[in-house]
Amino acid sequence: MLKGRLHILLFAAVSITVMMISYLSFQYLYDSAAEKLWASKMESGARESREIGRLLEQQLQSGLPQEKVIHNLQQSIENTDTQGEFICMYDKNGIELCHPNPGLIGQKITSGNSILASGSGSIPFNDAIAQQKSLGGTRTFPAAENRHSEIVNIYPVKGSDWIVAAHANIEVLKAELSGLYSQFVVCFLITALIIIGSCLLLIRQIYGRYEKAVSSEISKLNEKVNTLGSLNDQLARLQQENATIKLYQDKEISRKRIITYLKDELIHLDISEIAFFFLDGAAVNIVTHTNKKYTTALSLDELMKQLDDEQFYRANRQFIISLNCIKTIYIYGKNQLKIVVSPEPDEAILISKNKVSEFKKWLDR
Question: Which residues on adjacent β-strands are paired with residue 276?
Fold first, then answer.
């Protein structure tokens, strides 16, 4: 029963893990492909409008009349499909000069016709045409127009007031992305199922061998448990006795006082008078509860070996603090502690996050 439940849990864990990883990978690949497709449409539209605009410029420079140039362009684009991508041309006033649908020639783009959103902001499409600047973006129409949004790239034709515009229907682009999405979903599911099946088969084989080895080891270990039981009891008693002896010895060798100098005067300080020790450059200073300051030739490491660790704690590389000088303890930054002591030193006393647990145990003795 337990083994069957373990297999079910293993299957669930592997399935969830693989599905999550596969889904994230699938989503990343799909988003990347969609972004590249969108960028490709923008780039191809900009390139197409630019190339046709330059072709018209060359025709004008060769001396062809404007009417002839417009006629040639109209003939080349007339009756082409406008559902996907198409080319048209306006003058600076927004009047259609060329369009795949001849019925639209002569119509004017009004101020409320549509909005062109680009990296530099959003402006009415007729204003974008009037500026006669190369520009690309998304053209959106009012809801009443019942028209799909477009990717539009416009290019001004030098030597004229014409604007060549390359249009790409966003709904068609979304349909392409939908087909791409379906392909990704199918690949995602097939890949996930293959990985899950392979992992479960491999784990089951490994687990079978491991189970045999474990059973053999358990039988051997059971024979040793009874013997080790009595040894553990004896060892625990010895450790307890050693700990008691060590505690007694540590307390015996703990410092009771420190000798220091104040000018030419030899002073002995009781340990109970000391609030904290701090390192200032290369010198170790002593600060008493009455805020008197002295120096000592001992290092902080040497002091910690000789002080009673129930009364003093090495807060950091600069400070050893007495339990009796602690006023307040604040949570500081990310998992650090700030110790407020009396008298207050010039520098803040911080307990790093790596020592917080040890400090709490010291306080809770």
Answer: 287, 321
